[in-house]
Design brief:
118 residues; mainly alpha; two-stranded antiparallel ribbon; 5% strand
Length: 118
């Protein structure tokens, strides 16, 4: 079992590195063409682990990713829209953007092989 990225087995909630602008208090979608499988893997764009995690834990952003995936008929046929796994760490659940950033920073710091490299 891997404890590091990628966090979803098939990348349904993928977000490209240029899709979001994230600060301590807010995030903005600045390039909606890099949301979901439709905007990343299907266009040979490597998903960004941190920004994909934002989409994994924030229901508003996840809805945008799902919409991008559902706009692609092939993804609809394969049932790869990004829905499911509803464990939210967002404002509706009582968390701030800084809380999200802290959680994501922690998750990205985990190491599958902590004893290697000593």
């Amino acid at each position: 079992m891997h404890i590091t990225a990628p966090y979803l087995h098939d990348g349904r909630v993928a977000v490209g590195k240029d899709a979001l602008q994230i600060s301590e208090n807010d995030y903005q979608i600045v390039n909606p063409n890099q949301l979901g499988l439709a905007g990343t893997s299907l266009n040979n764009i490597v998903p960004d682990a941190g920004k994909s995690l934002h989409a994994l834990i924030d229901r508003n952003l996840r809805n945008q990713v799902i919409a991008a995936n559902r706009a692609n008929s092939d993804l609809v046929l394969s049932n790869a829209d990004g829905s499911g796994h509803n464990y939210w760490v967002d404002q509706q659940a009582g968390f701030t953007i800084q809380d999200q950033n802290n959680l994501i920073e922690y998750l990205l710091s985990l190491d599958d092989n902590p004893g290697n490299g000593l």
